[in-house]
Amino acid sequence: MEKKLVNEIFLMxxxxxxxxxxxxxxxxxYSHDNNIVNQMQVLLTFGTPTFVFISEFILARSYPQxxxxxxxxxxxxxxxxxxxxxxxxxALMKGFEQSLSSGDNFISSFGGFLWKHILLGDYHGYFILVxxxxxxxxxxxxxxxxxxxxxxxxxSALLIHLVYLGFFNFVKAPQNEIGIYIWEKFYWVPFFGWFxxxxxxxxxxxxxxxxxxxxxxxxxxxxxxxxITGGIVLFLYESKIIPVISSKRVDMVFFTTxxxxxxxxxxxxxxxVPRVVVWISQYSFGIYLMHSVFxxxxxxxxxxxxxxxxxxxxxxxxxFVSLLLSIASTxxxxxxxxxxxxxxxxxxxxxxxxxxxxxxxxxxxVQG
Length: 368
What we know:
Elements: H1 3-29, H2 35-44, H3 47-62, H4 71-102, H5 106-120, H6 126-145, H7 150-170, H8 177-184, H9 195-206, H10 208-217, H11 219-238, H12 252-268, H13 275-282, H14 284-303, H15 311-335, H16 340-343
Helix pairs in contact: 1-2, 1-3, 1-12, 1-13, 1-14, 1-15, 3-6, 3-9, 4-5, 7-9, 11-12, 14-15
């Protein structure tokens, strides 16, 4: 792969990872409503769809003709297995907490959380199920996508994407348990809510040089568009038209796309990627999976202190401590035999010869 592509992937992966971490740190620190913080959180939700975009971009860029023979085995071992094991780990934690707080049977509580986590993606690792749907779409439709008109495909995908999200954004949920669950969580998982990102990533990755030419040709719009689309997002949020903090807002499709373009434009201007950016990118998968554990533990610990910590300072503590502990945990687990099956492998750094594979008390709800 070209050197510049390395810059873009490292930078984009790091920014999206840190945006998610900051989003969740703010949610823990500010348990009460704060208008400015809420606005920041809405915009930070672009991190999850950007993370998803990266997986298909690398796939289309790395394998323009056909997927390698070991494609599925590697992704099942190093992405799906961690998804299952980590989902089980979170189910154990939640089952234990529920049995202590409500007196419910632990096995029953654990089983209830387990099947939802694994089959429905009912924890923050749901993005892995989305990525695997992208893998399947790429596998079955790659030979057609490379022949079809990119603008027709992306336009059709955008329409499907917007209609799907718009339905769940504006139509009220049926007042029954299943309907409420689908509207609150499950609609995140089907690929329809991410479809445009898939087609955009495919054609940008496959036609990388053309994509970069367009990015530079329309650089003024690339720089300005995040402010325009971000302003629209904030207006719709403040006016209560779409009052949720979530990446699955219909307006976030445009803001996320504009942020992706801006990050690519910035990356093309870098002569060298800062070492810390490469380092965080290498551990991004582990950070994504592990940070919620450390945030929850710190949240419980800080709530037992006799003094109250300023929320801004608390955000900084949450952010950096969970970041460093997630990296340390990922590093240690990768040194233990088969530990990477739990947390995923550390990605290959910029100085290597080849690129890596893509890969408590109640607080206010924030969707990544």
